[in-house]
Amino acid sequence: MGYVDEEKWKSLQHIRSCGRNELTQISKAGFLWKRSSMLRRWLRRWYVVKEGMITYSYSPQDAALYNCEKALDAAVHFASKATSKPLKRTTPEGDLQDMFGLVVKDRNGKSVELYTPSCNELEEWVEVLSKASSSAQFVTNLYDLNMDNPLGCGAFATVVKGKRVADGQVYAVKIISRSAFLECADMLNKEINILHMVGKHRNVVTLKEVLHAPSRVYMVFDFCDGGELVDRVTTACPMSERAAAGIIRQLCEALAHLHDQGVAHMDIKPENIVFTSREKDSPIKLIDFSLATFFHAPTEPGGTPEFVAPEIVRDPDGIAKSGVGGEVDMWAVGVMLYFLLSGKTPFDDKSVTRVLENVMQGYWQWRGRRWSVISDRAKHLVRMLLQPKPMLRLTARQVLEHDWILSRDQLPDRPAAVPARGSPQREPVVRLCAFRLVGSEFHVLDPCSPFLVTFSSGGCNASHPLSPKQLSWQVERPHGVAG
């Protein structure tokens, strides 16, 4: 058995050996409002419920760095809707907004009154706080987890299908061992805060809830059973322009939502786009926020070799200090569009090393005869996204206003015929793995072997075997997995 398979087998055995039932506590994070006691001003803060306690920060970024203060001194004991009528808040635009209140009390009798402008959010917060105030619940009382047939396995994480006991709704549940969660606490804490902040969007996977247990952490996501985008594209059968425009439009809707909130995904690729169903016109959802980061905040550079932006490869130290903006995602959208229309990526080469060198130089061309039958407007959009200088790339909202996207209904709904040289072969697209910066070098997982290729500004070095720690987040996701 190969190294990777052995680690997956150990992970699955560990999940089973811990027993299928353990006590869990729910956690949640999001923005709530409070009125200052002195000036009665409205204060917006980022509140986190975890392990029975409620804390707040000035922003999700602060929460990700553990810069939190207690909203109440003791554990939550009681939560309910405020009995008074909704209060009025004047928005920056001068409009009056209803603010719905909830009262939270701790075990010492101290209380705090918090507000939200949404009735639905009010219901969610009351439900979560009520669960947090009660005794911990066994996971089997909440979800019926199918651990005998996992959707995906990694070295320290397993994804299974889970049916919620309360209503029978099916979700994808990522189960992470407590040791791995603690080892990668900063990364996972940031991912969870970002997913909570992003909230609900039709083209972004929703983190429903997070459950903490003594030996495991459960992250509950939307269940999408339509498969990954990468499974619907081959070199011999790329997408029609109309279908590709539909995918890019939905992807940019998702990215506009993220970028408006100051979040970069940093790992846009076909494997991270899934269909909600198996229908031909199924909506898509953007998944896997493990590399996501806040705009221009210090971050570990990373991405997937054929989709990573050149500025990340050229100056990893600068990116580590100053972070990134939405431009890195828009470069990846350009690569994605090229891929959808041709079945290949513009920087594809014989090795990961060559791929990264091509990306760093910004070298690409219209490869293959298929581009001779692709419209000029589609190629114009590709060029406007694959700009080596980040500031010259189109934003997500500018892409949504591009002529090619706006004229989607008039685009061909079948790939244009290209005279073939011999019999065309339906070649599957190679699945790509992400990399992270380790020290001063990029460590890239070669999909064909359990070895790392290290890459830095000084060039490429010898390969090194993967360690269990570096493998821990390489989770395979067959259809249905949204984490």
From TrEMBL:
Annotated ATP binding lies at 174
Q: Please list the residue ranges annotated as the PH domain.
A: 25-134
One example of the protein's molecular function in GO is:
protein serine/threonine kinase activity
Q: Which UniProt keywords apply?
A: ATP-binding, Kinase, Nucleotide-binding, Serine/threonine-protein kinase, Transferase
Instruction: Name all Protein kinase domain ranges.
Output: 145-405
PROSITE patterns associated with the record = PH_DOMAIN, PROTEIN_KINASE_ATP, PROTEIN_KINASE_DOM, PROTEIN_KINASE_ST
Q: Which Gene3D superfamilies match?
A: Phosphorylase Kinase, domain 1, Pleckstrin-homology domain (PH domain)/Phosphotyrosine-binding domain (PTB), Transferase(Phosphotransferase) domain 1
Could you tell me which Pfam families the record lists for this protein? PH, Pkinase
Read off the InterPro entries from this record.
CDPK_Ser/Thr_kinases, Kinase-like_dom_sf, PH-like_dom_sf, PH_domain, Prot_kinase_dom, Protein_kinase_ATP_BS, Ser/Thr_kinase_AS
Spell out the PANTHER family in the cross-references. Answer: SERINE/THREONINE-PROTEIN KINASE
- Give the UniProt family note: Belongs to the protein kinase superfamily.
Can you say what this protein is called? Calcium-dependent protein kinase 13
